[in-house]
Amino acid sequence: MNTAELPFGLNGKLALITGGGSGIGLASARCFVEAGARVVLTGRREEVLQQAVAELGPMASYIVNDVTNRAGLPALVQEIEQTLGAIDILVNNAGINMKKPALDVTDEDFDRILSTNLHAVFSLTRECARGMIARKSGSILMISSMAAYYGIDRVVAYGASKTALEGMIKILASEFSPHNVRINAIAPGFIETPMFLKAMGDDPDRLRRAMSRTPMARLGAPRDIGLAAVFLCSEAAAYITGVSLPVDGGNSIGF
């Protein structure tokens, strides 16, 4: 049997992945295509998106979009559904981080992080959910963080955005799940992406501490997140909703 036809597959599904041109977003797109899904990638950098689609092949397409332009999100969803078909899966991957002592974080800094990581996520989720609820089918996946699980210094805005996201999935799951629209999250641990390496590059002590409390004693790969995303968005997870899955090498239970 073709693996895309198994319960763990996504054969015939259309997935919208924000921030899909690199890192975890691109790895998730690659796993989705392998599982039989068509993917639409969005992001702000067209060259990056073009390279990603060229790598992924004919099952992938892209639309240049900035999720923080919330007024334009209904039109984005409408364009996709009119040209490519109904959106079966939404992966809210786009996000930004900022490492700065809390006393140095300005109101503008805080608002900028929440605008991308929380406000835009809700707006796009709401617009995609309209069609999913009408069709009585859909899966929405949030990308959370270890910063929502425990206190990490110097990421107050980022941690606040991800903590709020964790609460939001529970509330939306309670509203949407009766319509067969599931909402879950993945909380990546320390994953070897450009964003992570940049954050850790000037802070070797932070990396040492991260590894010291990770039982598997290594960084994760973006593909680890992508494969977990395939599972949560597949029929194999049909009775799972409102959960946040740590994919972290045991970091969240390490000491």
Feature tags:
255 residues, seven-stranded parallel beta sheet, SDR family oxidoreductase, SDR_fam, Rossmann fold
Protein model, in words:
The chain is of the alpha/beta class. It has a single domain (3-193, 222-246), classed as Rossmann fold (3-Layer(aba) Sandwich). It is 44% helix and 15% strand. It has helices at residues 23-34, 46-56, 73-83, 107-135, 156-176, 194-201, 204-212, 222-233, and strands at 14-18, 38-43, 60-64, 89-92, 138-143, 181-188, 244-247. Helix 1 crosses helix 8 and helix 4 packs parallel to helix 5. It is globular and about 50 Å long. The model has no long low-confidence stretch (mean pLDDT 94). Belongs to the short-chain dehydrogenases/reductases (SDR) family. One of its GO terms (molecular function) is oxidoreductase activity, acting on the CH-OH group of donors, NAD or NADP as acceptor.
Strand residue content: 5-15%
Q: What is the number of strand segments?
A: 7
Number of helices: 8
CATH architecture: 3-Layer(aba) Sandwich
The first-level CATH class is given as: Alpha Beta
The pLDDT mean sits at 94
Spans of 5+ residues with little confidence (pLDDT < 50)?
none
Any idea of the CATH topology? Rossmann fold
The neighbouring-strand order within the major sheet is 3-2-1-4-5-6-7
Largest sheet: 7 strands, parallel
Q: State the share of residues found in helices, binned by percent.
A: 40-55%
Gyration radius from CA atoms, angstroms: 17 Å
Count structural domains.
1
